[in-house]
Amino acid sequence: MPTEELKDAAAKYLMQTYTRQPISIVRGRGTRVYDLEGREYIDFVGGIAVNVLGHGHPDLVHAIQRQAAQLIHVSNLYYTEPQVQLAKMLVEHSFADRAFFCNSGAEANEAAIKLARRYAHAKYGPERFEVITMTNSFHGRTLATITATGQEKVQKGFEPLMPGFAYAPFNDFGAVEAMVGERTAAIMLEPIQGEGGVHVADREYLAQLRTLCTQRDILLIFDEVQTGMGRTGTLFAYQQLGVEPDIMTLAKGLGGGVPIGACLAKEKVASAFQPGDHASTFGGNPLACAAALAVCRTLLDGGILEHAKRMGDYLAKSLADCKDRQRIVREVRGLGLLQGVEIDTDAKSVVADCLVRGVLINAAGERVLRFVPPLVVTQRDIDKLLDTLTVIFNRRVVEEKAGRH
Length: 405
Prior knowledge:
Layout lengths: L2 H11 L11 E5 L2 E4 L4 E4 L2 H4 L8 H13 L10 H12 L5 E5 L2 H20 L5 E5 L8 H6 L3 H4 L9 E4 L4 H7 L4 E6 L2 E2 L5 E2 L2 H14 L2 E5 L14 H4 L5 E4 L10 E5 L1 H4 L15 H16 L2 H22 L3 E7 L2 E6 L3 H10 L2 E2 L1 E2 L4 E4 L7 H25 L2
Parallel strand pairs: 3-15, 5-6, 5-7, 7-10, 10-11
Antiparallel strand pairs: 1-2, 2-3, 4-12, 8-9, 11-12, 13-14, 14-17, 16-17
């Protein structure tokens, strides 16, 4: 179906919940994707931080093919080997003792919120239920997770919101400490706010939150849906930020493109869930878990984490150099291969200009460009991105000068 026909059919048959770029992507290989007309693009979106192994990685493809031929789904009424193996791998390479599997980041965060409330209810009673999250955060699109999300634009039109959430400024420990009370069950945050514009949590701030939570028996929840699975150069972001949470959520990169989410927790917290307290029909099915196992093994054994760390450093330095040369760039921030560039112009128009030049990027807000490429991205790919941005930024400056005369 030609792209224009596809767009017309989408407009007719799909709910209009997305603003899509005017291309139809039909295949991918490594860091490249190709549209219906055969044009090539370097992918710095990566399915929004999902395709950590790139497109068509043979280890992932073969794992999916093998499992699909053997067993796709049987439900959680029975044991399956891929699910238990994946739980074991995640536990052995993290702070956690147990895992719960679901289908998405929003579901993982729902599980974390329910687990925190269940733990607090069992230990302290029903009056201890509040979760403090951060302004400018993003935790998902379900009713509970948009309430947890500290952005009014995401919540607007869906009121009344769920009770039991409060918001503190990000990286402001004093504000959080002042809000903690007898009703506080958990503090929930992203180590790096991705959708909120790529803001990194300060190490001291996280350490202070950890101490406060330990002293008050409040659960510390890290939403690593976007930062997990090697994005920052270690398997999980908390591993280089010096603080362990009590609960951590994963999704996005976990399945390398196959939908799967996970809620990991320490034993004292995980034991609050008993049979019947939470469930997911498709969560942790054999196909998704086989894919996630392939991703984990490839990240841990294939040298990709080390490569991602090097490329993250190179991307950060390249963007910082760009800032030094370009007046239009206000700030560069991020960690590893999750980088944001705040610019003095409309971000979506820059995204469109990059698309025309064969580079896929993403906007996180009106003035922030976000870069979350596959972890197999190369120095050559990054150089192409920077060359493209340089051309676009220089052109903007010329246009602004011409407009003033």
